UniProtKB/TrEMBL annotation:
It comes from Pholiota conissans. This is Uncharacterized protein. Residues 1-22 form the signal peptide. It comes from the Eukaryota. Residues 266-316 have a biased composition (Low complexity). The keyword Signal applies. Residues 250-260 have a biased composition (Polar residues). Residues 250-316 are annotated as: Disordered. Keywords: Signal.
Length: 340
């Protein structure tokens, strides 16, 4: 089945399948207290985070502590860290190297998402000093150190997209994702920038290649990352600039997964994702599903500006629609949201 999204219409969709339940979007939002953090973020600095009700008029909904931050490090290895056990004390220390492109996504104790902002580039001290020229809110003493940065260990758990990370992905294009290492079953996370939700798809046990039909709204950024059944993240998370038509129905096409004996990656430089000729998956399809990623917002980088029509979380429930599930893919939509 297909989903059609009427223009200028706000739509939410929420469904839970399989063992994960209680994942609900639109309960809470988060933001860095330092509002100058928009396109860059300092490394090795404790960054205070505000968690507020999604409905700032009534405060009627909220997340459930503890809160976790998943940092999708592009062409690197994402990580999930505890950022606060109570709402009044939430903070993050970015420990990725200067120059890393990251997309932040907060999750609460129930796995309910708090949304994403624009991708940001990790900076060190000099950028912080420079940015202070134009901002009173940046703390000069912060970000001075790079001592916290983790040296990534060579990972044998990798994801190789067959479309180059950081390049364009056109509506209805096929994106092949080849997974090596890790412990099956794998979970694919599709994360759009400036979106309130995350789409998780758990592949059937044994499957290691996913073919994703790009139904993301054009004009945004979409991250594809893989984690395994032990919670480890694969190296090589990729980001794409979504392009093309806003008609994202892609009739007749369905995302699918399969098992393929993948050749070893050519060199040890496989810790970064590349064009991945080695990632060309086989054609056998064992399962299909219509996978709609979270929709990106417009060009805004604050979630609050893009949530005007969703003040009542129960409207998400009334918009709930059945989802076609074929094979054994578990499609977990924490919520979908589109702004036109
Ligand atoms: C964060 O919370 C503090 C204290 O409640 C408040 O003063 C500040 O304006 C908030 N900042 C943002 C960006 O929401
Ligand atoms: C909602 O919570 C914020 C703090 O997060 C507070 O400033 C505001 O007064 C509250 N509003 C209501 C209606 O309780
Ligand atoms: C999606 O999957 C990731 C990786 O398993 C997990 O950390 C996250 O909590 C899941 N849900 C959301 C809404 O991000
Ligand atoms: C700057 O950060 C340091 C360390 O976190 C803190 O002790 C200090 O109070 C901060 N200064 C300002 C002006 O926020
Ligand atoms: C990526 O792989 C899929 C199959 O998984 C294939 O249909 C598609 O054409 C490939 N794209 C590129 C650019 O090689």
């Amino acid at each position: 089945m297909r989903f059609s999204f009427a223009p200028a219409r706000f739509l939410t969709l929420s469904a839970c399948v399989a063992s994960i339940s209680a994942q609900t979007s639109f309960l809470y939002k988060w933001s860095f207290q330092d509002t100058s953090i928009q396109t860059t973020v300092p490394t090795c600095t404790r960054l205070a985070i505000n968690i507020t009700s999604f409905d700032t008029t009534t405060n009627s909904t909220k997340g459930t502590p503890p809160y976790y931050m998943t940092t999708y490090a592009i062409d690197g290895t994402p990580s999930t860290t505890l950022i606060g056990t109570k709402e009044s004390d939430v903070s993050l220390i970015v420990d990725y190297p200067v120059g890393t492109l990251v997309l932040f996504s907060v999750t609460d104790a129930n796995g309910s998402p708090g949304g994403t902002f624009a991708p940001m580039t990790v900076t060190g001290q000099s950028s912080l000093v420079a940015s202070r020229e134009t901002s009173h809110q940046t703390n000069l003493t912060a970000g001075a150190s790079t001592s916290c940065i983790k040296t990534p260990s060579a990972s044998k758990f990798t994801i190789t997209p067959n479309v180059t990370s950081n390049s364009d992905l056109t509506t209805c294009d096929l994106l092949g994702l080849a997974i090596r290492g890790g412990v099956s079953p794998y979970t694919l996370s599709l994360v759009a920038a400036t979106s309130p939700s995350v789409t998780n798809v758990t592949l059937p046990a044994g499957d290691n290649v996913y073919t994703y039909i790009n139904r993301a709204a054009p004009g945004g950024h979409l991250v594809a990352a893989i984690s395994d059944s032990t919670g480890e993240w694969a190296t090589g998370a990729a980001i794409f600039n979504t392009k093309g038509t806003t008609d994202t129905e892609c009739s007749g096409l369905a995302s699918s997964s399969t098992h393929t004996d993948l050749p070893d990656l050519p060199s040890s430089s496989s810790s970064t994702s590349s064009t991945g000729s080695g990632g060309s998956p086989a054609s056998t399809t064992t399962a299909t599903s219509n996978t709609n990623p979270p929709r990106s917002g417009a060009s805004t980088s604050t979630l609050s500006t893009s949530t005007t029509s969703s003040t009542n979380p129960t409207s998400a429930a009334t918009a709930l629609r059945p989802i076609s599930l074929l094979g054994s893919i578990s499609l977990i939509l924490g919520g979908l949201m589109m702004f036109v």
